[in-house]
Design goal:
InterPro entries: ACMSD, Amidohydro-rel, Metal_Hydrolase. This is Amidohydrolase-related domain-containing protein. One of its GO terms (molecular function) is carboxy-lyase activity. Keywords: Lyase. It holds the Pfam family Amidohydro_2. The protein has about 300 residues and is α/β, with parallel strands linked by helices. It has a single domain, classed as TIM Barrel. Helices cover about 40% and strands about 10% of the residues. β4, α7 and β5 form a beta-alpha-beta unit. α6 packs parallel to α7. It is globular. Bound molecules: zinc ion.
Length: about 300
């Protein structure tokens, strides 16, 4: 598809909040509400689509399946595929997969690609799903995504999941380090396009280095109110890595309105601002129209 000229922004990181997705959070729903200090009301896909459409924005909708490690099955990927089909002007669907499911996870990626034309896979969370992306047992997943032209999103840095509980829910922070775990995948699969989600604090400098070094890796600024972004992230995003930084909210944790209001307080170069909000995602997802001047 081709995006309209008046498209304002693409939010590359939103978590659907329909009944099914909230149920699939299990006990994490209450823990995350505590951590972020906000409850999670049900929002239908139609309502979410309206929120973005009325602002002339698009949104990536992500999913997760951690059945092997949590015992709770993720919401069906069909829900996202159908939401994308119902609202093709707004949504780009990512399929949630459980990397431990091996061949079944590969088959699920192929099925979602074939049936729905999904845009990517993720958000994968190496801490919560307890895996290391550079473990060769998971390479068939990344190989498949590269073959099908799907973007893969890895959560980077501090996870809300388990935060503030004894033992952090058993989730290890180490797994969410961009270097070496995501950097290795990017090196092994140069044709694979990766979103390293969030600034990845406390490893935001590693994240910047990885994105600067490897042109197949993008970072999204989601999950942080822009006014709290570490200064180095803003400095590099506004200069050497401005071609590979993406607007993302982590909705519903942050709304696009709040995010943009804070983002605009940071004094971006106009060229960087447009790239981050819109043009980098247009290029990453191949949404440029012919003759629009974008590559
Ligand atoms: Zn995340």
């Amino acid at each position: 598809m081709t995006v309209p000229d008046d498209l304002v922004a693409i939010d590359v990181h939103t978590h659907p909040q329909t009944e099914e997705f909230l149920a699939a959070m299990g006990p994490r729903r209450a823990q995350m509400a505590q951590h972020f200090g906000q409850q999670r009301p049900v929002v239908s896909f139609a309502e979410q689509a309206d929120q973005y459409r009325s602002r002339r924005m698009m949104a990536v909708i992500v999913n997760s399946d951690s059945e092997t490690t949590s015992g709770i099955r993720g919401a069906p990927n069909d829900l996202l595929g159908k939401a994308q089909a119902d609202h093709p002007d707004v949504f780009l669907a990512f399929a949630g997969i459980d990397p431990w499911k091996g061949a079944a996870a590969v088959a699920e990626i192929r099925r979602c690609h074939g049936e729905y034309g999904i845009a990517g896979v993720g958000e994968l969370n190496p801490s919560r799903q307890r895996f290391l992306p550079n473990d060769r047992r998971f390479f068939p997943l990344w190989e498949t995504c590269a073959e099908l032209g799907l973007v893969v999103m890895f959560h980077g840095g501090f996870p809300g999941a388990g935060a503030g509980t004894p033992g952090g829910g058993g989730h290890r922070l180490e797994n969410a380090r961009p270097i070496p775990y995501v950097d290795d995948v990017a090196a092994e699969f140069p044709e694979l396009r990766i979103i390293s989600a969030h600034p990845a604090w406390p490893w935001h400098l590693d994240n910047i280095a990885m994105v600067w070094h490897k042109s197949n890796v993008y970072l999204d600024l989601s999950g942080w109110g822009p006014k709290y972004l570490p200064p180095e992230v803003v400095r590099y995003a506004d200069s050497v890595i401005s071609d590979r930084v993406l607007f993302g909210t982590d909705w519903p944790v942050l709304t696009a309105d709040r995010w943009l209001a804070e983002f605009d307080q940071l004094g971006w170069k106009e060229t960087s601002r447009r790239k981050i909000l819109r043009d980098n995602a247009v290029r990453l997802f191949g949404l440029a129209g012919s003759g629009s001047g974008e590559d």
